[in-house]
Each structure stands twice: as C-alpha cells, then as structure tokens.
Design a protein that fits this description.
The structure holds two protein chains of two kinds.
Chain A lengths: L2 E5 L5 E5 L6 H7 L19 E4 L12 H7 L9 E3 L12 E4 L6
Parallel strand pairs in A: 1-5
Antiparallel strand pairs in A: 1-2, 3-4, 3-5
Chain B lengths: L5 E5 L3 H12 L5 E5 L15 H4 L12 H6 L2 E4 L4 E5 L4 E4 L4 E3 L2 E4 L3 E3 L12 E3 L3 H10 L5 E5 L3 H12 L3 E5 L12 H13 L3 E3 L4 E5 L6 E4 L4 E3 L2 E4 L3 E3 L2 H5 L8 E2 L11 E3 L4 E5 L4 E3 L4 H15 L11 E6 L2 E7 L6 E7 L5 E8 L2 E8 L2 H13 L5 H5 L12
Parallel strand pairs in B: 1-2, 1-7, 2-3, 7-19, 9-16, 10-11, 10-16, 11-12, 18-20
Antiparallel strand pairs in B: 4-5, 5-6, 8-17, 13-14, 14-15, 20-21, 22-23, 23-26, 24-25, 25-26
Helix pairs in contact in B: 1-8
Classes of the chains: A alpha+beta, B alpha/beta.
Chain lengths: 106, 409
C-alpha cells in the first residue's frame, strides 16, 4: 500500500498508508489529520482541502482540471504547487509522496 | 483535560463526524461516545439526492471515514438508539433502549427531519421523502428506466432528485406550489435559468400547483392537484423542506427558538450542553441576525467551534454560510444568504448558456452569489461579501472587468 506524508503548517508530519485509488483528501480525513476540512466531501466544490505538493513530486501528478485551477486561484496563499487534495488519486507510482498543508483553508 | 471526562454526542451526521475527531486533535483524552438513531456510520448526505441515486456512488463510497478510523481514535459509535431525555441536574442521558449514560459534556447534533405533508394517499407504497440513507435506498429500489416519477416540491432536493432520475431514464414531473421553483432561495432570474435547463433535459416542471391527494389502491398511481390535473406516477417523492430536531433540547428546558439556541461558542443555555449543525440557531455577525442553516458547511464549522470550546479554546463562530447543488452538468456554488436583496446583477449569459453568476446586492453591498460553473466568481464572491464595502455596480455587471479588481486589497 503506498504511503503519503502530510506535513502540517506547524511542522508536524504524519506518514500514512493509503489505498491506491483513494484521494489524498480522504487519506487526511481517515487519519484525522488537522488542516484538511473537505467540506464538500470531494466534489471539487469548496476548496477547503487545499494542499501544496512537495516540489519533488509536482511533475508526477496528473494536472488539475479547469474547474480545480479556477478554484485554486482564489484559495488563501496559492502557490504554483497548490492542488485540491480531493482531486488527486493515490497510485503505486506515488508511493512516498509528500504534501504540505496550508496554515488555513480560508 | 481530565481523562475521565466523558463527552456524549447525540446524532451521528456531518457535525458529529467533524466534532469527534476535532476533539481528539485538540487534546480531549476522555471518552467520546456518539449516539446514532441510524444503522450507518456517519455518511455524506448531499450525494443521496445525486450520485447515490444514480448509482455512481454506493454506501461505502459516501462514508465520511471508515469504521477503523473511529476505532483508532477511540471514538465509540452506538447505533440504532435514540436519546429520549436529558437529566441536566444529574448530567444523565436516557436512551430509548432504557440505558442511561452519564456525561460531563453533551453535544446535540440532532439535525433536522423532513417536513411531512398530510394529504390523502401519502402513506401509500411508492411515496417517499428523501433525507437519510434509508430513504435513498428505498427510492433507489423503485427507480427504473421509463418509470414515471412525480416530485412534489421544486426546491434544491426536488430538483437534484429530478436530475438524478432523468439520468436513470425516468419520466420526471416536478410540482411546485409557489409561482416558481426555488422561490424561497433564489432570484426569479436564477429560478428561470433552472426551469429552462430542466426543460431542456426533459423534466416537466409545473409551478403554482397544489398537490391535494395521491391516488392508488396499494401503490401510488397518480398525484392529483387542486385544479383537477392528475399526474400518473410509479413513484412520488416529496421534498418540501425540513424541521430542526429540537424536542430533546426543549424537554430538557434548553432555550429553543427556531432551532436550539447557541452562542458564538456553540454553547446552549446550559454551558455543559453544546449543539451544532442543522438543529441550531445562532447569531451570525456577518448578517447581524439569528440564522438556522441547513448545510454541511454550518455543521462542520460549528462542530469545529464546539470542539474547541470543549477543549478550553474559545474561538467565536463567524463563518460565511455557503452551499452547493449539483444538477446535470451544472455546478452551483452559493456564497452567503440573499434574503433582503434589492438588486440582482448577472455576469455571463444566463439565458443562453450554462454558466453565469448572480450577485445579490443591498445598498451597493454584496449579500450573496449564486455561481453556476463559475468557481472563481464563487470564491471571489465569498471574499467580496466578507469585505462588506460598497461595490461599483457597473464594474460588477461587466464581465470584462475581472472580479478580482473589485477586492479592496
């Protein structure tokens, strides 16, 4: 089972196993990691599951849809490596992925 | 926090699913026990009228998190029981199976129930309401291509259900008692947009019509209206709003006024009892009035506030309400509350396309935004509402002026 490391804004990191096919958002919710709200439950509606993909992994992840890109332009503190974690599905190829969580989802 | 402190959460929906883990994250080490009158772990309710009905999602895929996650965090969930009374003096909760539970802190996340209508035939087989998993499962079993569905109520639930049933190839009629659909929640322009799209998708929407009975021998066969019109139906779905579940709070003597009254820290009139979500009424500082909201956002955000309060961190609740509704290829995102608006400003082609945003304005200030397939307008709209400063109406109406430029930096 591939692993993901979530690094919170305060520096705490959590390494968790995530089923392939599961979203990065769901991995944070299942493991009760503070920093991902995911109010809409993964329907790309709320932009409260914003995260930053570690620079070394950015190229390996499927690019964002137009809808996601539009939402990302308006999140708090957007960066080039910003993504909505509900839109990223875990795969074996992403084993070892590191994502950083923002200070706030608002 | 003392490890012997015991928190009992009554209700196991969105608010409870947010609250319990938030308590653990913020350092609550005592017992946490969630009481559910359903037989399911907390699940996402919005898909019930959408992807769950169409079959795109199933029970497992709409669970908020799996059972193991709660077990790991030592969160106990007791299913299939209801709380019947609260003994505040002795801090004791009584359940309908006769058991009593002592609490140090109690949180009421009792939600809302459907508003039922009392017309002849409403108890026939094939007549449904839609609020919980059981309802949705029952409806799902009765769906099928070319079957006829009559939906009573042209609000979001009715329209989302219409969209889902069309996807399944059903013949769908929506009966709305008011002069137009979405009357309570949107401007006439937005309602007209949804009426157009539903017509394009083959739904028969009839407004200004009162359903007075449902005919049939054993099963529903038709919905009969006051004007004599009769709409044949294999299934009837009623979606005419919800009522907050306040009886438990009321019988315990807690203050109830269109919802369980809570302060900005999610505390009821008894500070050892908190409440969050659809069952509550709170004072909203943005709109300067008491609100009872029916939304996932409110359930989650108010539950987070409640968790913080219970762990000794008083963070006032001041979130901007937001909502969403998915129908066909339309992704509607709603920021704020439009009640009290004097003007509506539209960006985009509301009459010909499937993408626009409607801005609800009062005295030059933005109250709310309905954005259809325009996520940026939704996101920026949220900020413009909270900014609460007068906007240039010409710029707001001009789609060539980026909305971002209206933000005061």
């Amino acid at each position: 089972m591939p692993t993901v490391t979530y690094v919170q804004a305060n520096g705490n990191s959590h390494e968790v196993n995530l089923d392939a096919g599961s979203s990065l958002m769901q991995g944070a919710v299942d493991n009760m990691i503070d920093g991902i709200l995911a109010e809409c439950g993964g329907s790309c509606s709320c932009a409260t599951c914003h995260c930053y993909i570690d620079e070394s992994w950015v190229d390996k992840i499927t690019p964002a849809s137009e809808m996601e890109k539009d939402l990302l332009t308006c999140v708090s503190e957007p960066k080039d490596n910003s993504r909505l974690s509900c839109q990223i599905r875990m795969t074996e190829a992403l084993d070892g992925l590191v994502v950083h969580l923002p200070v706030s989802q608002f | 926090m003392e490890s012997t402190s015991r928190c009992i959460i009554v209700g196991a929906s969105h608010a409870a699913a947010q609250l319990a883990p938030a308590l653990r994250q913020q350092g609550w080490t005592g017992a946490i026990n969630m009481i559910s009158n359903e037989y399911f772990l907390p699940y996402h309710r919005p898909p019930l009228s959408k992807d769950f009905l169409t079959g795109a999602k199933n029970l497992e895929s709409i669970m908020i998190r799996p059972a193991a996650a709660y077990q790991k965090a030592n969160i106990r969930i007791t299913m299939g029981v209801s709380a019947t009374s609260i003994d505040r003096a002795n801090k004791r909760l009584t359940l309908d199976d006769g058991e009593t539970l002592n609490y140090d802190k109690l949180v009421l996340t009792t939600g809302a129930r459907v508003r039922r209508i009392a017309i002849p035939g409403v108890d026939l087989a094939g007549v449904f309401y839609l609020r919980d998993m059981h309802d949705a499962q029952q409806i799902k079993q009765s769906t099928g291509a070319n079957k006829r569905a009559v939906i009573i109520g042209g609000g979001y639930i009715g329209l989302e259900t219409a969209s889902a049933l069309r996807k399944l190839g059903m013949q769908v009629t929506v009966l709305e008692a008011m002069p137009r659909i979405l009357q309570r929640v949107t401007a006439p322009e937005v309602a007209a947009f949804y009426a157009r799209v539903h017509a394009e998708e083959g739904v028969n929407i009839i407004s200004d019509v009162q359903a007075v009975s449902i005919s049939g021998e054993k099963r529903a066969e038709a919905v009969i209206c006051q004007n004599g019109a009769e709409y044949p139906a294999d299934i009837v779905i009623i979606g005419v709003g919800v009522i907050p579940n306040t009886a438990l709070a009321e019988s315990a003597g807690l203050q109830v006024d269109n919802g369980i009254v809570v302060d900005e820290f999610a505390r009821t009139s008894d500070h050892d009892i908190l409440a969050a979500g659809d069952c509550t009424s709170h004072f909203n500082p943005i709109y300067q009035r008491h609100l009872r909201l029916e939304s996932v956002q409110n359930a989650s955000d108010q539950a987070s506030v409640a968790a913080a309060t219970l762990c000794g961190n008083l963070n006032p609740y001041s979130a901007l309400p937001w909502f969403w509704s998915d129908q066909y290829d339309l992704k509607l995102q709603i920021a704020g509350l439009s009640q009290g608006y004097t003007d509506v400003v539209i960006r985009g082609d509301i009459n010909g396309s499937r993408s626009f945003a409607a801005f609800y304005v009062n005295e030059g200030k933005l109250l709310a935004v309905d954005a259809v397939n325009r996520p940026q307008d939704f996101m920026l709209g949220k900020r413009l509402i909270v900014q609460n400063s007068p906007l240039d109406m010409n710029k707001l109406a001009d789609d060539n002026v980026p909305l971002k430029t209206l933000l005061v930096s």
